[in-house]
Amino acid sequence: MSALLKTNMETPEIEAGFLTGSQDGLDGDSLSGDTAAVKRALVESFQVKRASLRAKSDGAFLSLWDMGGHTSFQASHNVFLSSHGVYLLVFRLTDFLKDKLETDRLKKWIRLIGTFSSGELNAPRIKQHDPPLIFVGTFLDELKRTTLDYDKRVQAMQSNIAKFPELSAHKFVRFCTADNSLGNDDTELEVLRGFIIEAAVHQDQWDREIPARWVKLEMDLLEARKKGTRILKFAEVIEMNKRSVAPLPDEDEMKLALE
């Protein structure tokens, strides 16, 4: 699942039709040779220009990933876990009260995030701390039905989690609840949204400047995904880069851009 937050910015050149290559006699299906190459270069250059302008805007790109807490998903964790993110650790409130294993599971996730966000597995950091964590206790409605002093129980759970020794390296830790019943006013979700926005600036790569030449490689990868490609070998990415109108100079920079 993914979401995109962005501002609506379009350059005059794109609005005038340059994005489709329809200007200055470049339109048509019979293009070949140098003319086709020029058209392709123009189209790609304006695409990069548009993406660069959007990157400088106040918008932000946001991807949401559901890691899956089941054992069968553990083999994929090292692909998605890194220091570049805000992590939501979701658990059922009533399970936390009844099952000690729920505490162990939360601690295990904290250790996993710490392991895969280590300096050895990531690019150099701007902010020297582990990524932000937000604990989300779900099914608050269920707890309300079964417990009279549910608010005290929630506070006790929050206090318990805050004492986890695994959290010592994390400077941004928040706790909230979620009501899963139909017809609620989504107040808890608004609180969660606020925490995510607050946490964004605490990511270790926030405010990191990246070369504009990386944009073209990213656009080529997104285009491949639109065409149905799900997985690419690094060798295939190297060939893609070689065909680009703005190729990255070496494999080391490609790896840094992909990271």
Quick recap:
By secondary structure, this protein is mainly alpha-helical. It contains eleven helices and five strands.
3D structure, described in words:
- The protein contains eleven helices and five strands.
- It has 259 residues and is mainly alpha-helical.
- The strands form two sheets. It has a three-stranded parallel β-sheet with strand order 3-4-5, with helices on both faces. A two-stranded antiparallel sheet has the order 1-2.
- The longest helix has 23 residues, at 33-55.
List the topology elements.
Layout: E1 2-5, H1 12-15, H2 33-55, E2 60-63, H3 77-80, E3 87-92, H4 93-98, H5 100-116, E4 133-138, H6 140-146, H7 150-162, E5 173-177, H8 187-200, H9 214-226, H10 234-243, H11 251-258
Parallel strand pairs: 3-4, 4-5
Antiparallel strand pairs: 1-2
Helix content: 40-55%
Supply the helix-strand structural class.
mainly alpha
The strands making up the biggest β-sheet line up spatially as: 3-4-5
Q: Mean pLDDT, rounded to whole units?
A: 77
> What fraction of residues sit in β-strands?
5-15%
Total helical elements: 11
- What general form does the structure show? elongated
β-strand number: 5
Question: Which stretches are poorly predicted, pLDDT < 50 over at least 5 residues?
Answer: 1-31
Question: Could you describe the largest sheet, including whether it forms a barrel?
Answer: 3 strands, parallel
Oligomer: single chain
Distance between the termini: 20 Å
Rounded to an integer in angstroms, the radius of gyration calculated over CA atoms is 23 Å
Please provide the ordered H/E string of secondary-structure elements.
EHHEHEHHEHHEHHHH
